[in-house]
């Protein structure tokens, strides 16, 4: 736990084999991070760019490309989970996430099957299966939780997605409790994406005389408040997409601004470095009334949040699918 008094966790939004073998343990031992996340884009950059995977690629070169990817990715996740196991045992998060094939985003059964397969293959209790917050994804989340598998609900942009994730999670936990009434409950995080709103809408905000660098954190706060009101001890809000592009904002802006009680922030290494070297001050989220007043001004400026939610979700799904396909295509060429 980065800040025990606040119950605020800082997770690392980066995994790569050399990093796991060297610096990752040090960040955990120092209490800087107590969890990690991955996604297809992170694995694409790692597997296709780092020589740390060359030996394993050669060893398993006869495998089909997707199976080879799975071998490489699950080995990294297992290694990270082993490093975080002490945190997990001590009730200090200690989770690492791996995402199902993003090409399955509209296929609940395929995501469920692959989620079970990945969890079983990795064989560690502190693994979260990342499932996108789509219509099919809510079903897959529910069914994985019924089996006792922890879930990271990802690509959450809207309050509506947040509410639907909570509904699916509660159903899944209820199903698990029916069959395993005395067992420890699986855990969940709802990954609320932040910075992409500002990159998409800041130009329109500025043209309307509204503050820039604000719509992402206000939307995240709205989703955070929805989760906090449920007061579920097996759900945490997680702020994702918290890296800063360009020099207009401090590098740790989206971590510092969202240092709320009981939440997780997963951030790139550069962002974590900036945050821990700065003056961290816990914050409280704005009230629902303040949030509604802000978004009333946004609506008056003719900024359509529903269109923004749809675009960002569509873009996020497409980007992860493209990254995954590029991994498979490149591994196939390398055979």
UniProtKB/TrEMBL annotation:
One of its GO terms (molecular function) is transaldolase activity. Keywords: Cytoplasm, Pentose shunt, Schiff base, Transferase. Pathway: Carbohydrate degradation; pentose phosphate pathway; D-glyceraldehyde 3-phosphate and beta-D-fructose 6-phosphate from D-ribose 5-phosphate and D-xylulose 5-phosphate (non-oxidative stage): step 2/3. Coiled coil: none annotated. The active site is at 130 (schiff-base intermediate with substrate). GO terms for biological process: carbohydrate metabolic process; pentose-phosphate shunt. Its EC number is 2.2.1.2. Its main location: cytoplasm. The keyword Cytoplasm applies. Belongs to the transaldolase family. Type 2 subfamily. This is Transaldolase. It comes from Campylobacter gracilis RM3268.
């Amino acid at each position: 736990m980065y800040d025990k008094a606040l119950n605020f966790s800082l997770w690392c939004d980066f995994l790569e084999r050399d990093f796991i073998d060297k610096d990752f343990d040090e960040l955990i031992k120092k209490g800087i991070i107590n969890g990690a996340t991955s996604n297809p884009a992170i694995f694409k950059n790692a597997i296709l760019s780092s020589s740390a995977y060359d030996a394993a690629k050669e060893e398993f070169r006869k495998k089909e490309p997707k199976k080879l990817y799975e071998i490489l990715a699950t080995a990294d996740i297992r290694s990270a989970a082993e490093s975080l196991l002490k945190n997990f045992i001590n009730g200090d998060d200690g989770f690492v996430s791996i995402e199902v094939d993003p090409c399955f985003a509209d296929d609940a059964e395929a995501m469920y099957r692959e989620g079970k397969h990945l969890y079983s293959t990795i064989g560690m209790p502190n693994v979260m299966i990342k499932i996108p917050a789509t219509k099919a994804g809510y079903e897959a989340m529910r069914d994985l939780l019924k089996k006792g598998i922890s879930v990271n609900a990802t690509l959450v942009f809207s309050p509506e997605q947040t509410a639907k994730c909570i509904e699916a999670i509660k159903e899944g936990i209820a199903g698990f409790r029916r069959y395993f009434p005395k067992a420890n409950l699986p855990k969940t995080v709802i990954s609320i994406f932040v910075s992409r709103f500002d990159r998409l809408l800041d130009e329109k905000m500025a043209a309307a005389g509204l503050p820039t660098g604000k719509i992402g954190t206000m939307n995240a706060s709205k989703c955070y408040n929805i989760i906090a009101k449920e007061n579920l001890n097996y759900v945490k809000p997680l702020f994702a997409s918290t890296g800063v592009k360009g020099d207009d904002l401090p590098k740790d802006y989206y971590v510092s601004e969202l240092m709320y009680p009981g939440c997780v922030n997963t951030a790139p290494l550069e962002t974590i470095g900036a945050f821990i070297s700065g003056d961290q001050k816990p914050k409280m989220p704005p009230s629902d009334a303040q949030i509604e007043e802000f978004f009333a001004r946004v609506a008056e400026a003719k900024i359509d949040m529903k269109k923004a939610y749809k675009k960002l979700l569509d873009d996020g799904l497409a980007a992860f699918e493209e990254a995954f396909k590029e991994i498979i295509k490149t591994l196939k060429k390398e055979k």
